[in-house]
């Protein structure tokens, strides 16, 4: 769990998306790795070997400039404001049962707890609904 949103993936789904998720470390660097069983540790070490990423040479300019970072921060700030407006509006009119019905009717993953359900619905309102997992076809992913 990372903040109010679950941040986990099936191991095979994670391996497919690891470059997109920018996770280049080995499996033993995953938070909570040492709490896993010996078999799970072995499987994760086999599937998630450390990836070496090519570093930029000194001749290449830094990719993000301060202006780009400032523009990105502004976009994120506006996006965050909209998300909290949605969250506040929904929390005043929807109870746990209605949140669950909305998620079920939209074929979305239903997390435990009213707050987490509200977060999923707000994510859907801001970014759109996500498709189910390509491997198991049952659990949905969440935006990070």
UniProtKB/TrEMBL annotation:
It is found in: Nucleus. Residues 1-52 form the PARP-type domain. One of its GO terms (cellular component) is nucleus. PROSITE patterns: PADR1, ZF_PARP_2. Keywords: Metal-binding, Nucleus, Zinc, Zinc-finger. GO terms for molecular function: DNA binding; zinc ion binding. It holds the Pfam family PADR1_N. InterPro entries: PARP1-like_PADR1_N, Znf_PARP, Znf_PARP_sf. This is Poly [ADP-ribose] polymerase. It comes from Portunus trituberculatus.
